[in-house]
Predict the structure.
Amino acid sequence: MSNVRDFGAKGDGKTDDTEALRHCLRDGNGLVEFPRGDYLISQTVVIDLTQRSRIALKGTGGTAKLIMTGPGPALSLQASHAGSADPGDFRPEEWLRERMPTISEIEIEGRHPEADGILINGVMQPTLTGVLIRHVRTGIEITRRARNVLISHCHVYHNTGIGIYLNKVNLHQINIIGCHISYNRLGGIRAENSEIRNFQITGNDIEYNNNRAFKVPNADDVPTAEIYIDVGTGSVREGTISSNTIQSTYSKNGANIRFIGAGGENSHKTGMWAISGNLIGSQETNLHLTSVRGMSITGNFIYSGHHRNVLIEDSKHVTLGSNCFEHNPDYKMNELCTGVTFKNCDDCNITGMILQDGQTGQHTVPDAVPIQRQGVLELLNCQRFNLSGSQILDGAPHGIYVENCTDTVITGCTVLDNRTTKLMRAAICLKKPVRCLITSCRLGKGTAHVIETDGEIQQSNNLSD
C-alpha cells in the first residue's frame, strides 16, 4: 500500500498536491491510499495503465477529497484495449497491467468552471465504487473503447454538464447500479454517437437533471433527460432500465427517458431494450421514443407528464405492457392529466394497461403545457396495431382516438368516464380508419356517442351504455 502522504502530498486544502500524486502513482506499489484530507490538484492526474502495473485508488471510506482547480478531468484512466470482450481478444499485457483499475471511496469536487470528474479512455474493466463527484462539468466520461464497466454505489451530484456521459465510445457490458445521479444540468446518463451493447441501468435514483437548480439564462428549454440515448452515427442495443426511480421537475423539451434513433433504414440501430419496474414521473414527457425498433415497456408506474406520459414516434415492434398511468389524487382539482400517443408506428401492441386521466380533463398545475390531444390514448398514422385487456378511464375529449390507421384491433378493453360531470365525448373516435376491429369491450357512452367513426369498422360482443 502506498500512502500519498509518504510521497509529499499534504492534503491540507492549500498546497498543490498534483506532482505528489503523480509521484505516488509512478513509484508506488499499486494500491494508492488517500488518508483523510483535501488534496488540491491543478492539472489532470493521468493514470496510464500501459506504463505501470495494476492499480487501485482508495479514499479511506470517503474521508478524502480531490479538489480540481484547473480545467479537464481530475483523474484520467488511459489504456490500450482495442478488441472485443472475447477472451481471445485480450493481449497478455492487458491482464498484466491494465485490467480492472479501481477508484473507490473518494470525493472529487470541482473549483474551476471547466473541471471534470473522471475520464475513462480505452480501458478494460474499469470499476468505480463509492465515489462522490460534484460541482464539476462532466461527472464521469467514457470514450473511445471500453469493456466490462462497473459504476456502483456512486453519487454524481449537482454538476453543470452531464452526470455519466458515454461519448463516442465503443462499449460492451456496462452496469450502472445503485447510484444517486441528480441535479446534473444537461442530463443524468447520456449516450451519444456510440456503439453500445449490454447496457444495464438498475436500482438507481436518477432525478432533477435539468436547468432548474442552475438557473442559467435562456437555457431552460435545452432538451435533456434523466436517461438520454441519442444514437446519431452509432447504435445502442441490448439494454435494460429496471427498478429505478426516475423523476424530475418540469423543463421545456425535457423527458425522463428519451431515445432518439437514427431513423429510416437505420431505425433498428436503437432497440432490443426492456424498460421495467421503474417509477417514472414529473417531466414534460415521461417516456419519449423516436425511431426505435424492438422495445418492451412493462411493469412501470408512470405519472405527471406535463405534455404526455408516453410519446412514441416513427417506431416498430414496441410493446407497452402492464403499466399504470395515473395522477396524484392528493392534488384533487389541481392536477396533471395523462396521455399516451403512438405516431407513425407499425406492428406495436398495448396490453394490460391502466390509463386514467385527471378529473379536470386538462392540466391545472403551474407551468403545465396546455393539452393538445384528441384522446387520452391516441394512435395516429399507425399500421397493424393491437390494443387489448386495458382500462382507459376518464378520457377527454375521447377515451381512444384512432386516426388514419390500418389493421387496428381493439379487444377486451374497458373505456369509461366515471366522473360526476362527464367530459368524454365518445369512448372511441375513429377518423379514416381502414379495417378496424372492436370486440368484447366495455364501452361507456360519452356526451355524444359510444363510438364515433367515418371509416370501415367491424364490432361484435361489446357491452355499452
Q: What stands out?
A: The radius of gyration is 26 Å. Helices lie at 18-27, 92-98. The CA atoms of residues 284 and 306 lie 4 Å apart.
